[in-house]
Design brief:
Pfam families: LacI (PF00356), Peripla_BP_3 (PF13377). InterPro entries: HTH_LacI, LacI/GalR-like_sensor, Lambda_DNA-bd_dom_sf, Peripla_BP_I. GO terms for molecular function: DNA-binding transcription factor activity; transcription cis-regulatory region binding. There is one protein chain. The protein is an alpha/beta fold and 344 residues long. The termini are far apart. Strands 2-1-3-4-5-11 form a six-stranded parallel β-sheet, with helices on both faces. The longest helix is centred in the middle third of the chain and has 16 residues. 42% of the residues are buried. It contains twelve helices and twelve strands.
Length: 344
């Protein structure tokens, strides 16, 4: 027990390392934080003692002379979305390789919460990694002025960024559905504040027109599983034979709703998602979707902030065909009721 009465063991300090190594505190500090200022023999000796004692440097204390903490803030719009697991993993791995650590913040799909995180974290991080930020460009600019920052799937003037190739993914999606005979498709939109949602709608519209496919968009919808029922009903009400969702969570919710409603997939209607999250391959039926370069994007964000990546890389996103898409029926009644259902 330490002198405070706390049963937890006391953290090892630089003073403990110096005492055990038989050197001055300033020498121990230089050996661990600025080894070029001591001899190699002293550096190795102090490092060995520090490792033996389990000493972990205090990042806040180290930041005092340099102004740098070695921390990057990764801000995601919804930490519960499985799509972001790859982004977090990629960013953490790349940050660790560069000698940095990641602080994770959840924007909760709310621009005000996002802005509050940026204000609070700005005092002790070295840079920001932003994933599809929901705030306006005018609101974000002053919050990011003092720090290096990089953005995924949201071009912002003056900031480096990385995007998925949404146009290529939309082209593959429409080509796949048109090849199956679908002449009408509906896009189940995501949040109004999502740049990716606008890009998906724009590129799907263009490629549908190129293939002579009738296109509708309904929404917006929150990008969560619970939006599936409303999105499915809105999409089916158009009479379209193919539903293309903003993301896999909406798409999986759509599949669940259609199963409860007795609408066969892909017999009566085909469903396509986006992101290829964990679970997309074993939902019922397995979901046709487009991949998201989440892990490479996380690594690229770190490289952009540290200045070691090419400017504004575009990462590939490809269609993965599974059992939720199939040949179009020649006709289908609106509101999700298959022809002949009343006579079954």
């Amino acid at each position: 027990m330490n002198h405070t009465g706390d049963a937890r063991p006391r953290a090892v300090t630089i003073y403990d390392v110096a005492r055990a190594a038989g050197v001055a505190t300033s020498t121990a500090s230089r050996a661990l934080s600025n080894p070029g200022r001591v001899s190699e023999r002293t550096r190795a000796h102090v490092a060995e003692v520090a490792e033996r004692l389990g000493y972990v440097p205090n990042r806040m204390a180290q930041a005092l002379p340099s102004g740098r903490t070695g921390l990057f803030a990764l801000l995601v719009p919804d930490v519960t979305n499985p799509h972001h697991v790859g982004l977090i993993r990629g960013a953490e791995a790349q940050a660790a390789a560069a000698g940095h650590s990641i602080v994770l913040a959840d924007g909760q799909e709310d621009a005000a919460i996002e802005a509050a995180h940026l204000r609070r974290l700005g005092s002790f991080v070295d840079g920001f990694l932003l994933v599809s930020p929901r705030g306006s460009a005018d609101d974000l600019a002053p919050l990011l002025r003092r720090h290096p920052a990089a953005v995924f799937n949201r071009p912002l003037a003056g900031l480096p960024g990385v995007v998925a190739d949404i146009d290529a993914a939309s082209a593959q999606t429409v080509e796949h559905l048109a090849g199956l005979g679908h002449r009408t498709l509906v896009y189940l939109r995501g949040p109004e504040t999502s740049w990716a949602d606008g890009e998906r709608r724009r590129t799907l519209t263009a490629h549908a027109e190129r293939h002579g496919v009738s296109f509708h968009a309904v929404g917006p919808h929150a990008p969560v599983l619970g939006s599936g029922s409303a999105a499915a009903e809105a999409g089916l009400a158009t009479g379209a034979t193919a539903l293309v969702a903003f993301n896999d969570l909406i798409a999986i919710g759509v599949l669940q709703h259609l199963e409860r409603a007795g609408v066969p997939v892909p017999g009566d209607v085909s469903v396509v998602g986006a992101d290829d999250v964990f679970g997309a391959s074993f939902c019922h039926p397995p979901l046709t979707t487009v991949t998201s370069p989440a892990e490479p994007a996380g690594r690229a964000l770190v490289d952009l902030v540290t200045g070691t990546a090419p400017d504004d890389p575009v990462l590939p996103s490809v269609l993965v065909v599974r059992e939720s898409t199939g040949p179009a029926r020649s006709s289908r009644s609106p509101r999700g009721v298959p022809f002949g259902a009343a006579n079954r």
